[in-house]
Design goal:
Elements (H helix, E strand, L loop, with lengths): L24 H9 L3 H13 L3 H13 L8 H13 L3 H14 L3 H16 L3 H13 L7 H13 L3 H13 L7 H12 L4 H13 L7 H14 L22 H14 L1
């Protein structure tokens, strides 16, 4: 499986208002969106302690990856994610299925998590559709199938899913399963970037730096790279990064890669 396929977006940031008296995972989401990471972590800890499976799943993911000030603890993190999914919570189950191949990149992990994604994708869940489409796109645990990939990714994008829009943009950018159309790709990246999807922001930085689908503009490239660097800090905003062939050679590592790209554009 390609390196870019090892991680996926976790959960979209929901922006509707929730009163402090009825605090929820969405409050933590808004804190992360505003780059108030410690506040977001504190809210997730409180909710997870109260038995919220969505909060437990997200906190488990952060522990697995060593997010922010949390010490990296893959064993505890995986246990939390599995416990949250065992409650039957849809969001926790999809998050675990998406993370499963990072937890265990062997073929068995794809086979175990695939039916979960398919179940919820067929029920219309946009995130499951995007994840399943990504697997068909890259041949991850299933035969590579651009037609099926397009079906699921387009379905996710049609529902306003940021990851679906990003993946659809990638398909147009690469001419994979659809006619190559860099301008269409940029429009889709921009749609996903409106929801602070770091992978899409990075892709826009590449587009403006290389003049792929837009006129070359190093200032805008630097702006998008910096935004991607900021948002890649969010545990809800990991992404399927652009293929190696699309990356400026100086960019080699997620948040650091974005920051280095921005600095390179600034100097340029």
């Amino acid at each position: 499986m390609l390196e870019k396929s090892r991680r996926a977006i976790w959960i979209a940031i929901l922006l509707h208002f929730v009163s402090p008296a009825h605090a929820s995972v969405e409050d933590a989401d808004r804190a992360f969106d505003a780059e108030q990471y410690e506040a977001g972590l504190a809210e997730l800890r409180r909710l997870a302690s109260a038995g919220d499976p969505r909060a437990e799943a997200r906190l488990g993911w952060m522990m697995m990856t060593g997010f922010g000030t949390l010490p990296r603890d893959p064993v505890t993190g995986r246990r939390m994610m599995e416990h949250a999914a065992s409650t039957g919570n849809r969001e926790a189950a999809i998050m675990l299925a998406g993370m499963m191949t990072v937890i265990d990149p062997r073929q068995e992990a794809y086979e175990k998590s695939g039916p979960v994604l398919r179940k919820y994708a067929e029920q219309g869940d946009a995130w499951a559709q995007a994840y399943l489409g990504q697997r068909y796109l890259h041949g991850a645990g299933v035969p590579r199938d651009p037609v099926r990939a397009l079906h699921w990714i387009q379905s996710a994008a049609d529902q306003g899913n940021a990851f679906g829009a990003y993946l659809l943009g990638w398909m147009y950018d690469a001419g994979n399963g659809v006619p190559q159309d860099s301008a269409r790709a940029v429009a889709l990246y921009r749609e996903a970037a409106k929801k602070n999807l770091s992978a899409a922001e990075y892709a826009l930085g590449v587009a403006y730096e290389t003049g792929r689908g837009v006129e070359t503009d190093y200032l805008l490239a630097m702006t998008w790279y910096r935004r991607a660097a900021r948002h890649s800090l969010s545990p809800l905003n990991d992404g399927d990064w652009p293929p190696v062939r699309q990356r400026p050679r100086r960019c080699q590592g997620r948040r650091a890669r974005c920051a280095m790209a921005a600095e390179g554009c600034r100097r340029g």
